[in-house]
């Protein structure tokens, strides 16, 4: 039913003159900074865009548990294990808030899950890269959660109420995630020469995939213009990517590691770091399903869904039995 919702809503943004009175009144509410709530009237394309973005965001949290969950049993100390376990559990919680926010728009969590499992909906490109060693887990917390924070802090002000409110708690938890990641990689960077080499290798491999998290360059972004007019997105992809580079380069230098991109250079005139763009053909290939781990990630989610069927069936049977007993007693 919602298959079309994952399709692009196109680049064209209507002018006020082209809007219906309902659409113009809706846009005026957005422009006045009002929050839109689930029962308010909204243009169908606004609803579609939100279901697509919130749904993909929820899927990213759930699929994003896989690369780190894989290291819980191999964390180097009990303390690191407890921290990683808490972080991975937090990501499940983020997925749940986001699925609930999407459900307020009239799509069921089961429908969203099916669209993830059969590949109709996307999740963040970053989770299609492998975590090869413990140092990668530090780099994921620091770089991936760090990028997620930069993307999500503005989303606390997004125009759809339930999404904005979910982001408040998510951002608090993401800050802890990024700090624990930085602490883990700092330990590696300050360790033996072999450990420092591992830290460098993690940063080298994950730097460009982290830059890709912010989406394609603005000129190729299908949804940005309309999403910004509706204040679903508060910034363009390139603006947030630049913010990430400016924030992270000094951190890499603080760790005593080499910058993974030789093209990184402070630009006095712009007041920002210049940097080399990621390989965008690789990005588009990954989001089409051809990244190093796409097949494994979807196989793991499908297996979890299939293995959990007996639990869902049992819960449903129990709920039906309770409902029938209630009717009989009335
Ligand atoms: N990966 O027109 P745009 C996390 C797609 S954080 C895959 O620019 P938009 C925390 C896009 O969907 C990660 N696909 O799109 C964590 C569209 O295709 P479609 C999740 C991507 O929506 C850490 C097409 O390209 N965060 O999980 C990506 O305006 C550690 C054209 O792109 C969010 O989802 C990508 N990176 O801007 C968890 C944040 N980028 O749908 C566990 C909310 C673009 O038409 C462990 N989302 N595409 O088929 C957003 O802010 C936006 O959706 C963007 C993309 C910025 C990601």
TrEMBL record:
<dbReference type="InterPro" id="IPR012347">
    <property type="entry name" value="Ferritin-like"/>
</dbReference>
<dbReference type="GO" id="GO:0010124">
    <property type="term" value="P:phenylacetate catabolic process"/>
</dbReference>
<dbReference type="GO" id="GO:0097266">
    <property type="term" value="F:phenylacetyl-CoA 1,2-epoxidase activity"/>
</dbReference>
<protein>
    <submittedName>
        <fullName>1,2-phenylacetyl-CoA epoxidase subunit A</fullName>
        <ecNumber>1.14.13.149</ecNumber>
    </submittedName>
</protein>
<keyword id="KW-0560">Oxidoreductase</keyword>
<dbReference type="InterPro" id="IPR007814">
    <property type="entry name" value="PaaA_PaaC"/>
</dbReference>
<dbReference type="InterPro" id="IPR052703">
    <property type="entry name" value="Aromatic_CoA_ox/epox"/>
</dbReference>
<dbReference type="InterPro" id="IPR009078">
    <property type="entry name" value="Ferritin-like_SF"/>
</dbReference>
<dbReference type="GO" id="GO:0005829">
    <property type="term" value="C:cytosol"/>
</dbReference>
<dbReference type="Pfam" id="PF05138">
    <property type="entry name" value="PaaA_PaaC"/>
</dbReference>
<dbReference type="InterPro" id="IPR011881">
    <property type="entry name" value="PaaA"/>
</dbReference>
